[in-house]
Amino acid sequence: MVDEPLVLLGYGWIVLVGGTLVVVDIAVHRLPDRLTGLLAAGALAAFGAQAITFGEPRRLVEALAAGAGAATFYALMSLLTRGGLGLGDAKLALGLGIGVGWMGWPAVALATFLALVLTGLTAVALLASGRAGRKDAIPHGPFMVLAAMVVVVAPHWGTLGPG
């Protein structure tokens, strides 16, 4: 990954815009379309440039399919949970799915699963501690961004830091 500067640029973009989305979602329980669209557009630009520059069109197609698949999954979950997960989460999943999808479908499945588990564990902890009630909303976007970061960085933990 370190030898792929455009990929690093893409992940940096996801961290920058994703971090902003985390703050907004925690504060107002919304994921604004402009920011989720900006995240997806930047991810597409960076990973698309990587694919074109280094002849990796198949990898880009897989990343785009992963992003679309993740967005579709979250859109269906939004419908099935009647707003328990919002459509903003589906829009966020598109950009995150492109970035994590660069690593392959299993990484996207793992990030999605991890985000749902983290949100669920947080909900249980908040309910058990009395800090939240059954009808209180818990933003899922921050856990989506965190899970994506963990899945992207975890395979490289042993290689990070001073040599």
Lay out the secondary structure:
Blueprint: H1 5-28, H2 33-53, H3 57-80, H4 87-101, H5 105-129, H6 141-153
Helix pairs in contact: 1-2, 1-6, 2-3, 2-4, 3-4, 3-5, 4-6, 5-6
Low-confidence stretches: none
Largest pleated sheet = none
Strand portion, in percent?
under 5%
**Average pLDDT taken over every residue:** 94
Helix fraction by DSSP (H/I, runs of at least 4):
over 70%
Q: Give me the strand/helix succession.
A: HHHHHH
Distance between the termini: 16 Å
How much is the radius of gyration in Å? Answer: 16 Å
Assembly type of the chains comes to: single chain
Estimated structural class: mainly alpha
Number of helices: 6
Question: Using DSSP, what is the number of strands?
Answer: 0
Question: What general outline do the C-alpha atoms trace?
Answer: globular
